């Protein structure tokens, strides 16, 4: 090899590692943005005057837009170029972050968060696709390991960063810096990404299914909006009609997807996948798990900061043992336990997490308003271990019996339904948490009311974990290893770890 060729190879090698750093930073930014908001919710409510339903939409709106756009975002990248869609996504995400940071009222903040979720749906699917197009198969294991570490760091650091930024009240901006911090990172990613990321497209990309996206979004809105507003409005008749109508819309989605699949082979949802028992059960597990997490993380934040009156920093530090337990157990689960014990590890995770929730309910009742952070460590560690045993190996278990040619769409559907479950869980907070709190509370009544509502909501979470345990019996005893399928095979199986607020 000549000196010129060596120099060119070194430059290409440098470019791809720069590209990796850029897309990983974007993934880190997205995950931090999900986890950073939860800890600042009480501050947003107090400073911006947001109602309880608006608080739910600040989080649920992001999850809904993200879920609705994930599969379409991935297909747009395949058709028009992953680099192009990544740059559109990170640019739009940065703009939406600015709109969130400068929101004049809660309504504007909710709208900006929905836009932010939609832009994340354009950006995030391109991350792993760009990695696949940039690195040869023999290097991907190392790259995906690094990716997992970065995402894990984002999950742990998000709540603490949010707590610090809120507590510091930089320039008198209160909660706004949690969004504005994305601006320099996003601008740098946009500039450097346009220079160092290499463009790539799929050799044969599926067509878009915008009608499918519209039906999914409409159905979820018809279900979620009455759930979040119903309590405040006295549960009007139109709310029940809307929720019943959502079932009709989802029925229409199934009919349309079946026809579209027969016509051009590119439906949003590949219905034939649901004939695979383990996949159908796994989708149910992912959905219910998303609901449980959506309920828990929001009510946990409100319980600590509004009910107990803790500062954002104290609440953020209290959650550190949970995050560490999730990360540690996730690593052990994939590397040591699942290869030896198979499905039993996931089922044990569901039971352990349920046990942690029950311990938390007992402690919240036993200690009331005088509960200390160190007393929460036991239930949080137990819950974290249970969650870690589930989140890392679950995707492989769900995909293990899916035909190779459908693994890409199956993986996209798994990510989508978990986000949809999360949005549904956030909507259900109105029923399982706020429904237990009176409308006109005195200052002395707020604490006890929130403690009681927290215990009630956690009872629902424990019941959901028991349901997950039963659903897991339909998963394969030992997930099969996907080895065939060529260089692109691993792409479908890589999934971002679940955010840990």
Strand content: under 5%
Order of helices and strands: HHHHHHHHHHHHHHHH
Distance between the termini: 51 Å
Give the beta-strand count. 0
Shape: globular
Output the structural class: mainly alpha
Rg measurement, Å: 22 Å
Q: Care to describe what's here?
A:
Helix 1 (3-48) runs parallel beside helix 5 (137-168), helix 1 (3-48) packs across helix 10 and helix 12 packs antiparallel against helix 13 (343-367). It contains 16 helices and no strands. It has helices at 3-48, 52-80, 82-101, 106-134, 137-168, 177-180, 182-196, 210-233, 237-264, 277-307, 312-318, 320-341, 343-367, 373-399, 407-432, 443-471. The longest helix is centred in the first third of the chain and has 46 residues, at 3-48. Residues 482-501 have low confidence and may be disordered. The chain is mainly alpha-helical.
Helix-strand layout with pairing:
Blueprint: H1 3-48, H2 52-80, H3 82-101, H4 106-134, H5 137-168, H6 177-180, H7 182-196, H8 210-233, H9 237-264, H10 277-307, H11 312-318, H12 320-341, H13 343-367, H14 373-399, H15 407-432, H16 443-471
Helix pairs in contact: 1-2, 1-4, 1-5, 1-7, 1-10, 2-3, 2-4, 2-8, 2-15, 3-4, 3-7, 5-11, 5-12, 8-9, 8-15, 10-14, 10-15, 10-16, 12-13, 12-14, 13-14, 13-16
Care to give the gist of this entry?
Helix content is 79%, strand content 0%. By secondary structure, the protein is mainly α.
Task: Give descriptors for this structure.
mainly alpha, 501 residues
